[in-house]
TrEMBL record, chain A:
It is a multi-pass membrane protein. Keywords: Cell membrane, Membrane, Transmembrane, Transmembrane helix. One of its GO terms (molecular function) is transmembrane transporter activity. Pfam families: FtsX. It comes from the Bacteria. Its main location: membrane. It comes from Planotetraspora silvatica. The chain crosses the membrane at residues 276-302, 329-348, 368-397, 418-438, 450-469, 501-521, 729-752, 773-799, 819-839. The lineage of its organism: Bacteria, Bacillati, Actinomycetota, Actinomycetes, Streptosporangiales. This is ABC transporter permease.
Amino acid sequence: MLRLALRSVSTRKARFAGSLLAIALAVTVITAGGVLLQSALTGDRGSPRFDAVTLIVTGNSHLPVASVNGQAIDAGADPVGDGLPPPRLPLAVAKRVAQVSGVREVVPDVSVYSQVVKVGEPSSIVNADGAMRGHGWSSSRLTPYRLRDGHPPVSPDEIVLDGRFAARKGLGTGDSADVVTAVDGTRRYRVVGVADPATPGPSHATAVFFTDQTAARLSGDPTRVDAIAVFAESHEDVTRLASRVRDAAGDGTLVLTDTSQAEPSADSGAYVATTAFLGIMSAVAGFVAIFVVAGTFSLLVVQRRRETAVLRAVGATGGQVRRMIAAEALVVSAIALAVGVPAGLMLSRPLASLLVTLGVAPTGFHPVYGAVPVIVAAVAGIGLTQLAAFTAAGRAARVRPTEALRESAAPPRRLSRLRTLAGFAFAALSAFIVANGIATGGNKGSGDVFVVSFTLMVTATLLGPMVTARVARLVAPLIAVLGRGQGFLAAANSKANPWRIASASTPITLAVTFTCIMIFMPQTVQKLTLRESQLRIQADHVLVSADGQGLPSAVTRDVARLPGVSAVAATTPIPVRLGMGGAGGPVPTRTLMALAVVPAQVTALLDLDVKVGRLSALTDDGIAASSAAAREHGWRVGDRLPVGLPDGTRRELHLVATYDRSLGLSDVLVPADLAARHAPQALATAIYVKGETAEGLNALTKTHPTLITLSRSAYLAQMKQSSDAQTTAVYLFIMLIGLYTAISVMNMLAAATAARAREFAALRLAGSTRRQVLTMVGGEALITVAVGVFLGTLIAATTLVSSSLALTRTPVFAAPPQVYLTIVATAVVLGLAATLFPAGMAVRLRAISVIGARE
Amino acid sequence: MTLQSVSKSFGTGPTSVVALRDVSMTFPQGTFTALMGPSGSGKSTFMHCAAGLERPDVGAVYLAGADITKMSERRLTVFRRDNMGFVFQSFNLLPSLTARQNITLPFLLNGRRADRKWVDEIVERMGLTERMSHLPAELSGGQQQRVSIARALVTRPQVIFADEPTGALDTRTGTGILHLLRETVDVYGRTLIMVTHDPRAAAYADRVVFLVDGGIVDEMRSPTVERTSAWLSRSDV
Ligand SMILES: Nc1ncnc2c1ncn2[C@@H]1O[C@H](COP(=O)(O)OP(=O)(O)OP(=O)(O)O)[C@@H](O)[C@H]1O
Ligand SMILES: [Mg+2]
């Protein structure tokens, strides 16, 4: 069989070239996607701040917050919580750990937000490259940092600066600098020294060192520390020491031998974002690959129907035909792997730099080559083609030998019952997904609904010929305008042969669906967020921070004192751990970013559209949740929810209100008093202000160097802009996936057209001019494209509308007509070009020579 | 080979066509039978049923003591591979295989080794020795038809079916092919069943069977061109 297959592949290079191209491209895409995804997953090397330390003791962020019915609550994966620093530890733990034998020394470590600003520097150019962290000078040994100049901080107003930062800002020993912290607001310090990490590298967060006492004070709670660094006696076995330290440290702590995992690195957030982005893009590309490869093979089998019939007549069993096609698929996929894997590896480097340039990936992002992506690509490449060949071969094996003996072999006219059944099953599944997603609502519901685009795609493919015949009937009268004879022929062909149209239109459906969803989905979310924010924000001004980290509470206090200000409300995010899900059964604990607010202030400045309860009751041990989150987790107003607070305290808070307008804000609100007690380091992401006080606010930027004041409209405009930046990256990758799809569409349409050379020759012999033949083919291509665009639009619209319904109960979605029309126009141009070009080549041949050549 | 009360119709309801009605016929070993009749009379259907390519609605087909209508699709395929050979009107060679590979294709499917001497003998008799490594596209129509005959002979089948084997060929080439077919009966003792419209082709057969509207209406032993032509013009009303 393999010999027959090899022979078949080698003599029909042209025919196999198409499927080879399709599979090689699929392998290229999978390899490149895999390499990048693996690079993003393993790219985060952790924080180098504790490189010199043997062990690190931190708080355990994975502790369950409560138990239900005596069952401990499962504390599994926690996507938000894992990206945050662990909870702080009581200082007493350090004393206990210091007693453990084999421990030479312990150093309590403090890490607090500390933005250093050159005196007089305007807020617009304040450090935008991430958070600056402040530590006590004793923490400098943990990396270690070496003084390049000056001396360690001794008095409370002295600091030592990171060398790179100092050089960039033109600061040196003897200069003054302002430092913004959560506890102090802005305060002036003297630079007494400059220090560099012993082994410099891009993954170091920018550090500033205070005296140990100042650092402890700035942390808001001097009885707690962020980590405890343990230096071991020399020759001590680290594993054994770790277990002794673990015993001494007690519950609620983690002892890490890999010190890089003790705190999130400077890039960890960026790597998570990159992974998510690449994950979505790879999933889409992989899905496209499945369809393209499957489509290519079914086309190949249809083209060879007659040949298969000969084989069957000569005595090949169905199994032999199947094996032969499988063997051919193996040969083709082996060649495709040899081409696609190196191409994918080579492509991953420019793609990685593109991601960095676009700002999707952090600066240090580079492809990491490993065996896994190659193996995945190889398995996927061979597996996909075998799967495609298997389904196609099933059809081929059913070819009846008499078809070889009859002149015109009629393709099957009806869908098999199994296929129809599967099609309807997928349609039903799609309906269920939509209904369920809308019922769930919120982010989860709208995320769930996204899956419907995949299931509807499968439905369309399965029931394609059925739909195609109907759409062709609808479009046919329009096509007839092209010219009576040719238009009629095109329409007749499409009606008689819906299979050909269906399989040719599948990639177009796919391309239109995914392009529309990938472009319009973020725009829709942005539009909805903007719409909700517009309705919600009742303030005249919104204050934000220049470094993206937040504003200290001192700003809120100073704003409140300004003349002309009638109301101020700060929203301060703090991570809270909540038991998710309704009553009964084990409940996973997850971290959510809750917003701490003063209820009286927030009701005056934000219209949250409260549905149940009252926000004014959000005092003491109250908590409020968005209607969507409450629905998702089965919370009702009056319920007592077990909550873990950032300092490790556990409390039961009771739900006092649910509100609808949560998009762009948060799913959970907690009282500001609670946050002040349990998260003194928290910073406000936004401060809403009502009153005629623009000058007063501008004057405040002098005393608070990270403060940016925006009018309501400017704030909303900025909100729009920041999401545009992300959209650019999505656009570019959509274009790459679109390019891939386009090549596949061209490939399949070209193959389908080239296979009809005989038919065109017959038409020519019957007296048609070349023009007439091309018009007919063009008419069919238009029907094909129309079917593809129609189905693609339908699927995309269904997905977008359901997602909006789930998110905000309104069927609004964003689809700028010019973008949509561009997508449609591209599909039409590609479809026509891919059909007319090979048809043009085919009719240029002398008709008689085509008829004479058998098959 | 024997057909017993074989009937076959296509389709259901008002568009249903009866292609064969209650046909019985025996083809003794080593004979050459020509099937003739007007277009649509059921000749091809008759042959397909006899070869097990189409399952009759009722009736039985015996070859080598076995009723092939009772066999499973798989067994039938293997049985057909070993006991029947086919020559079609259009030559139906696999375009990607050389003449030699096309001829030995049944062995490839069997997983058996081709009998080299036997293949060489057939090839020589067909006058194809020089053309063995050519692809079908590089062969003339007559040469392609000779490759088909060689393929039909190569497994030493009991019965060879030929559906209008000379239909696409000029008279001289056709005559050559008919000589070769006659030889397969005389030299190798095969049973040959051939569908044809051409009285000159029918004249090579031992007998001619006439079909009209799916039924056997007449049989003629030792046919000549004149007698078959006369018969055909009589019934061709
Ligand atoms: N697969 C089929 N489906 C429907 N009807 C068929 C099919 N095959 C044959 N028929 C019908 O059965 C009848 C006999 O057909 P058959 O092909 O056996 O005729 P024939 O004698 O071989 O004709 P010709 O000399 O033109 O080849 C015809 O009326 C034909 O329309
Ligand atoms: Mg016939």
